[in-house]
Amino acid sequence: AVIVGVELDAEVLRVARENFDLDALEIEVCEMDALQFLREDKRKFDLIIDDVFAGYARSVKKPRWLPQPGFRLARRRLQPGGLLVTNALCREAKYLQQGLQRLFPALLRLRVSDYENEIFLAGPTKCLSSFQERAEVQSLQDITVERPGAVGPLLPRSIKDSRYVRLGRLALSLSLTALLRVWRQK
Fold it and tell me: Which residues are listed as membrane-spanning (predicted)?
C-alpha cells in the first residue's frame, strides 16, 4: 500500500520521527496544510483518514474548512468505492455528520465508551454494510458501531483557526491506519 501522511507542524513531525520511528514506516509525509494538500494534490486514494484539529488542549476543534469545503475535496480524492474516515469530538459530531450525510451514500459512527471522540466512516453503502456486519459478529468490546439518523438544521459553529496540531492526533491517525489495514486483510 502507498500511504501518504499530511502534517502542518514541523515540530510534530520531528517528535514523531524521534519517538514513533516515523521514517521506518516507509510512508510519504507531506509537510503542509491539509486543505492545501486536498486542493493541489490530484492523486486518488482508497482511504482518507481525517484527524485534523486546530488549537490546543480544551480549545481543540475542527478547522473552519471542515465539513465544507474539506469533505467535498476529500470525496474528489477518493477512488470509486473509497472510504473517508473522520475523527470528531462529540461536541462537533452532529455538525460533521450533517456534512458527511450530504456527500456520501452511507455513514457509520463508531463510539468508544468513556471517550470524547466519535469516528465516522463515510462511503458506499455496500462497503459500510459489510463493515457493520463484521463489527456485529466480532467483539469490539467498548466500541459501538451504528448508522446515525438524520441531523436537522444546526447553528453554525464558531471556530478560531490555529496552525498547530497536537502530537496525539498524529498517533491516533497512525493507529486508525493500522486498524483499517488489519480490517482490509480479513
Answer: none
Q: Do residues 92 and 52 make contact, with C-beta atoms less than 8 angstroms apart? A: no
In which region does residue 29 sit, left (phi positive, over 0), alpha (psi from -120 to 50) or beta (all else)?
Answer: beta
Q: Say which range, 40-54, 74-88, 125-139, has the weakest mean pLDDT.
A: 125-139
Count of other CB atoms within 10 angstroms of residue 30: 15
Would you put residue 30 in left (φ > 0), alpha (ψ -120 to 50) or beta?
A: beta
Q: SS3 string of 24-37?
A: HHCCEEEECCHHHH
CA-nearest of 95, 96, 73 to 6 is 73
Question: How do the residues of the chain divide into helix, strand and coil, expressed in percent and rounded to 5?
Answer: 40, 25, 35
Name residue, grid cell 455513514.
107
Residue 166: pLDDT band (50, 70, 90) is very low
Torsion angle defined by CA atoms of residues 65, 7, 186 and 113, in that order, rounded to the nearest 10 degrees: -60
Retrieve residue 62's grid coordinates. Answer: 475542527
